[in-house]
User: Which sequence fits this backbone?
């Protein structure tokens, strides 16, 4: 019986192809980084879990169900790593749900989402720069994030500032929901008049938002709105989870959470 476990928690996706390339790939990297721990998975979206159960017969635990399963399996030491993009409403709900079970484990630690602070923002910017190293000065990369009404960390605006401050003003960031929206992207396109705009999701998975809101043919999609400025557009339907440099950041966050755990034990003794 393995009394130590790693729980990877994602929002989830109903799109199997992108799930295999993103969430499954992140989980594989986490498994490889913590081979001594039993591995468990949970998704926070009840809508997606019910959809998969009904249409595909695939059963995926909620976070609470996964906790009960692990306790039933005798787990006493739990490390949780979310695959969420940032500390918005979904992440905060997860943190509270996991925290409610803290006393049921001898040790419980939870890693941070991809964008948690200035350090992780800089790490992600570096990963994106390495991924798009061939981007030319007369081109522009437009990154579409989801957006959150609940985050206390202005991650999207700060990420955009990070690119500009490092001399990469041809990379800009907007959101499909909430602030800042697509406005700063359109402003950058009109100011620079690039030869081509590559539009990519600043999302862990390239699911519905990427397919419809980014690359769709409707008038409100990013492809349509940016294309209406007269520039050539190209959409990249690859979630952030497809890039090894980004997946490595989740492993880094999990290792940091585990290190905090070890330091806490040492301080107590």
Assistant:
């Amino acid at each position: 019986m393995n009394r130590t476990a790693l729980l990877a928690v994602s929002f989830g996706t109903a799109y199997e192809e992108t799930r295999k390339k993103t969430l499954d790939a992140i989980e594989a990297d986490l498994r490889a980084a913590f081979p001594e721990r039993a591995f468990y998975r949970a998704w926070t979206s009840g809508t997606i879990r019910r959809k998969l159960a009904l249409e595909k017969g695939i059963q995926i635990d909620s976070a609470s169900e996964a906790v009960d399963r692990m306790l039933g399996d005798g787990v006493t030491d739990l490390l949780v790593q979310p695959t969420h993009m940032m500390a918005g409403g979904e992440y905060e709900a997860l943190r509270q749900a996991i925290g409610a079970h803290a006393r049921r484990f001898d040790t419980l630690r939870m890693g941070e989402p991809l964008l948690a602070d200035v350090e992780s923002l800089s790490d992600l910017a570096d990963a994106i720069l390495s991924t798009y190293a061939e981007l030319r000065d007369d081109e522009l990369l437009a990154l579409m994030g989801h957006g959150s009404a609940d985050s206390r960390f202005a991650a999207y605006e700060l990420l955009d500032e990070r690119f500009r401050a490092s001399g990469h003003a041809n990379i800009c960031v907007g959101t499909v929901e909430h602030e800042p929206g697509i406005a700063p992207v359109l402003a950058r396109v009109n100011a620079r008049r690039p030869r081509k705009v590559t539009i990519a999701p600043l999302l862990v998975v390239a699911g519905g938002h990427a397919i419809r809101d980014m690359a769709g043919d409707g008038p409100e999609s990013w492809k349509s709105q940016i294309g209406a400025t007269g520039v050539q557009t190209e959409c990249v339907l690859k979630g952030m989870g497809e890039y090894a440099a980004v997946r490595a950041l989740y492993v880094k966050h999990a290792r940091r959470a585990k290190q905090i755990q070890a330091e806490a034990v040492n301080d107590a003794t």
Observations:
- Residues 244-268 form the longest helix (25 residues).
